Amino acid sequence: MGYKKKILIIGSNEKFTLEKMYFRALKNLKHTVRIYHTGNTIKNRYISFIEKYLSFISNFFIRKLFVSFISKAKNNYDLIIIVKGLYITKNFILNIKKISPKSKIINIYPDDPTITSTRNLSNKNVIECIELFDFFCHYSERVMKKIKKLKPKSKLLYLPLGYDELLHKRYKKNIKDIKKYKDTVNFIGSYDDERFNILKSLNYKNLLIAGSNWKNIDSLQKPIFGKELSTIISNSLVSINILRDQCKNSHNMRTFEIPAMGGLMLTTRSKQQNFFFKEDEECLMFSGKKELQKKIKDIIKNKKKIQELKDRAYLKSRKHSYTNRSKYLIKKIFINE
Predict the structure, then answer these.
(1) Which of 97, 99, 120, 240 gives 20 to 30 Å between its CA and that of 217?
(2) Which tens digit of pLDDT belongs to each residue from 194-240?
């Protein structure tokens, strides 16, 4: 296992995607890594229309072009990583195995693949492919149990999410940012109905909301990344994290990103998050609207304690980088070498 691997990641080459985070982490570990770009996650309305109503066409071309690409590579990769891959089919995976028989093929799946009724989460083809992977990696033990019931022969690997050392930094604070965000409570993430209802219930004038698809509520109306994201999270009183249904009792990306950027996380209560960051010691948790409102009032009354929580969480977050996740992943995949 000592020698470096040649790795191909199939996914989006955009700076802020999970696949790009793994790309940077594996490069940091001196592996030879390439991303095969399948398409942007942030799309114009024409591409969005095609993928919504004519996805079978776009998926067909993704598969066709990739098979052509991998055929020319002449079995040159030790590891092929598919990140999610809603376009995959059983024949597609079997084709890759035939063309590149020495390659390990894994899937890192950031959603719940068992929810096939929601187009952007999964589909029946994904379920059919799970047992074909050398490893199917997931961050939720609860979801892994569901997968095992559906596909008992699947080889599953628990792989928590993490933070990116380039994107999720704690920058040196300056007076301007401290003053601007000192009373801010933020939520930065995509819209859904539950999140809307929870945030709408908060009667707090310095609530900052940013992310995709927010309507009928005051927000920045855009996703934010990089230094802008870190500046807001680091300098705010607290950052709210609301777990979606598929993450309940588990964690999400913000679980690690908020502490890594020097923020204080106020998150949906879950057993797994409490394992990574202890409640009331390294983060705060809530189980409903009333408790969330109370926690925010308590934070405002006890501002002096906030920095202590932030500092403890920041130190704890250091071991949860995608570089460390990649070390673990490579060790597990190539354990017998």
Answers:
(1) 120
(2) 999 999 999 888 999 998 888 766 666 678 899 999 999 999 999 99
Whole-prediction pTM: 0.94
pLDDT one-digit tens code per residue, 308-331: 999 999 999 999 999 999 999 999
Q: Are 185 and 240 in contact (CB under 8 A)?
A: yes
d(CA 148, CA 145): 5
Separation of alpha carbons 267 and 287, rounded Å = 9
Q: Which pLDDT band holds residue 52 (cuts at 50, 70, 90)?
A: low
Q: Which of 134, 152, 54, 121 is nearest to 93 (CA)?
A: 134
Tell me the C-alpha distance between 67 and 156, whole Å.
25
- Distance CA(257)–CA(71), nearest Å, equals 38
Write out the two tokens for 285: 């948790």
